[in-house]
Amino acid sequence: MQTFKCDECGQLLFFENSSCIRCGHLLGFSIEEGDVLTLKAVKDVPDYYTDVSDPKGSQYRLCQNLAKFNACNWLIPADQPHEYCVSCRLTEVLPPMQDETQRSQWVRVETAKRRLLYTLIGLGLPVQSRADNPELGLAFRFEESTDDKQVYTGHASGVITLNMAEANASFRENAREKLGEVYRTVLGHLRHECGHYYWQLLVLPSEKWLPKARDVFGDEQVSYQDAIERHYEHGAPANWSDQHISAYATMHPWEDWAETWAHYLHMLDTLETAAAYDLAVKSPSTQGENRRSRSSMRNREDFDTLFEMWYSLTFVLNGLSRSMGMPDTYPFVISHAVKEKLRLVHDIVNDLASYDSVD
Fold first, then answer.
1. What tens digit of pLDDT does each residue of 170-195 get?
2. In the predicted model, what is the mean pLDDT of residues 136-147?
3. Cα–Cα distances in angstroms (integers) from residue 242 to residues 107, 249, 250, 304, in the given order
4. Poorest-confidence range of 76-85, 117-126, 349-358?
């Protein structure tokens, strides 16, 4: 994630901010601009805004989920008829929001989804709605389990379902401990499930990449049901880390692909954030005309350079965590086999992503 600033007072901002923590100015993220804009109301046009740094430029409206639930900071170009931003329009089913706890958990999930979409769009990957592509468009269903219906996190033909219990920290930590996982987050779930989506959308139809993916990850045509039963009865092999990024990845080639895909997105997002901070432990400058730059995801190095940067950065992250007496931020060991799986994901993304889809 790149860094942002308030154009009114110069305060450093995060991607999620909807108002400046210093001056209180209204903010909004424009996916078209790839930037958090400091907003100014358009005179005599209610509910329309411009960027204070370019008052005669593009006009925007606020997503209705900001007004209704204080749950979104993405903007809608004024020439579009929608009430909701491109991210919120992809949410097909909302969870119940009968109290503040349920609302705040949903906000947490939507925030993770926007970060996922920022990365996917920055990579030039197709992000189509069900309206654009009824058979394989992307949609999200955020649901709670009930006595009558058990909700499972998963993917089916572009529809990503998340059990809202995953937004509860105590539930998620209990599941992480019970399943022996080193990492479990809402954003991680969404990245994993979108890996299944892009396998179906981009890899499965590709005569070039499907054979190579099967060579590296295995034949996904083997019985998934048998794989589930085997995995939960016997667990992962003792030496799973020699070939896989996680124990869960050992279950089936689909899961190996999705876990590796998610890890690749973790790498890119974290490396972009580090680059935005000049790879130094200091606050980045918010001065000057050149602070706005397009996502560094568009200027990715070759994979070996990326991996070398990642390897160095994770040592810094873990060193800082240990200095605070905390568990390692990055509790993974990347074997040669896993590195080559990550390389294949990198090559597929760079080959199949359409960089003309985002200016």
1. 777 776 767 666 677 899 999 999 99
2. 92
3. 38, 12, 11, 19
4. 349-358
Q: State how far the Cα of 217 lies from the Cα of 186, in Å rounded to an integer.
A: 25
Distances (CA, A) of 128 to 116, 124, 135, 198, 280: 14, 12, 11, 12, 37
Q: Are 124 and 355 in contact (CB under 8 A)?
A: yes
pTM for the whole structure = 0.88
Dig out the tokens for 25 from the structure.
Answer: 């100015």
pLDDT value at 311 more than 50: yes
Residue 259 token pair: 């876990």
Residue closest to 182 by CA, chosen among 119, 112, 114, 241: 241
At residue 339, the 3 state secondary structure works out as: helix
The pLDDT, as a whole number, for residue 290 is 43
CB 211 within 8 A of CB 219: no
* Model confidence pLDDT, tens digit, residues 33-91: 889 999 999 988 888 999 998 888 889 999 999 888 888 999 999 999 999 999 999 99
Contact yes or no for 38/29 (Cβ under 8 A): no
Which residues 6+ apart lie within 8 Å of 45 measured at CB? 59
**Two tokens, residue 325:** 């007496």
Is pLDDT of 249 > 60? yes
Q: 10 Å Cβ neighbour count for 66?
A: 19
Q: Is 51 helix (H, G, I), strand (E, B) or coil?
A: strand
Contact 50, 40 (CB under 8 A): yes
Kindly report the average pLDDT of the chain as a whole number. Answer: 87
Find how far residue 52's CA is from the centre of its chain. Answer: 29
Q: Chain centroid to CA 182: how far?
A: 19
| Residue 359 · residue 35 · CB < 8 Å | no
Distance CA 249, CA 236 (A): 9
Q: Give me the numbers of helices (H) and strands (E) for the chain, helices first please.
A: 9, 11
Burial zone of 333 (CB within 10 Å; 0-12 exposed, 13-18 middle, 19+ buried): exposed
d(CA 36, CA 53): 12
How many CB atoms neighbour CB 59 within 10 A? 16
